[in-house]
Recover the amino acids of this structure.
């Protein structure tokens, strides 16, 4: 009987360690709280990055009421990813464009400090990270136009 209890306890401990090993923290910095709205953090595989929000593997949204906002994700089943942060000021779930209809009007941030440029949005290849790179967390600054 003691042997079975020991086996169950060891199994529970291993399950807890596995779950904790997949958790990462993303700290979104430099939020302009005067703009209101929400901050969304999206975890992508190569599919859909960075424009197709509906293809994000994981998404979390919080009120843009602090200059720095922490998000915690469980990445247990994800080994490679790219991250997009969107300050959704009008809370419509889309990146609002400026008068050109091309460049964003709302704040954005990306993994590996990628930015929207003259050639368009960041590409997955330059934005991707391995889960191991995130074990100590990650900070992403919101860049405003």
């Amino acid at each position: 009987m003691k042997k079975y209890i020991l086996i169950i306890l060891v199994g529970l401990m291993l399950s807890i360690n596995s779950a904790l090993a997949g958790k990462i923290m993303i700290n979104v910095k430099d939020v302009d709280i005067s703009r209101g709205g929400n901050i969304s953090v999206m975890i992508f595989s190569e599919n859909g990055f960075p424009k197709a929000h509906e293809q994000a593997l994981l998404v979390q949204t919080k009120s843009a009421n602090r200059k720095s906002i922490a998000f915690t994700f469980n990445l247990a089943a994800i080994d490679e990813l790219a991250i997009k942060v969107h300050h959704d000021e009008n809370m419509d779930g889309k990146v609002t464009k400026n008068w050109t209809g091309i460049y964003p009007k709302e704040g954005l941030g990306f993994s590996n400090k990628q930015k929207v440029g003259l050639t368009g949005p960041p590409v997955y290849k330059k934005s991707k990270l391995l889960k191991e790179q995130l074990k100590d967390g990650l900070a992403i600054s919101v860049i405003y136009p």
Observations:
- Residues 24-141 form one domain.
